[in-house]
Structures are given as C-alpha cells and as structure tokens.
What we know:
Elements: H1 15-47, H2 51-61, E1 68-76, E2 80-91, E3 94-108, E4 111-118
Antiparallel strand pairs: 1-2, 2-3, 3-4
Amino acid sequence: MSSNWRPPVSSGDGRKEVLLAGLKQLTRPIITIFLIGITVLGLINVYGDASDVVALAQKVACRGATCTTRTTRIERTPFAHEYDLAASIPSGKQLTTVSSTVKCSRAYILIGDWTCTENGK
C-alpha cells in the first residue's frame, strides 16, 4: 500500500462539498456573534443602570399613590429584577407601611420595555 493512498471521491463534481465547507465557515462566526450578543444583553440587565426599573417598582409598591419607599432586598438576574420594598402609603392623616415584593421583567426576556408586578398578583 502506498503512503499517497486517498479514499475514493464521490462521482459528483465536488460542488456539494465546497458548499458545505463554506456553510461551516459561515455558521461558526454567526453563532459566536449571536452568543456574545446574548451575553452582553444579560450583563446589561444585571449591571446596567436600573434607576428607571426601581422607579417602576416603587410605583407598583405604592399602588399608584405618591409615597416613600425603603428597599430591603434587591435581586438582579439577566431575566428579571426583584425588589422587597417597604412603602409608607398615606391613608387619611396616618401613614400605613406595607411590605411588598415587586418583580420586574422585560417584555421579550432580554430586550423590550420593563414591566413590574407585585408578586402574588
């Protein structure tokens, strides 16, 4: 047996093999860019400025009224933020303190507008 031996080549003209090789070369960079983009979106959701999200959570905790809130716990993940807030809601001449857990998430998992809901509702 010679050292120059090669397996038999298909009877086609090789276009199919060239096309598949080109697709492999194109697919890897596209998948890599997609995964890097998803990672960046997740990092932005966790480490980005969340002042607008906190304001939405406070509005939900105050049940639409103007009140002061105290944050007792914050949990930020790529998919949602969760806040435990103690809201001092005016009721007549007194203030009623209500503790609530507010969960905020984006409309489309990692992108879109933030919406907040009180847990259990």
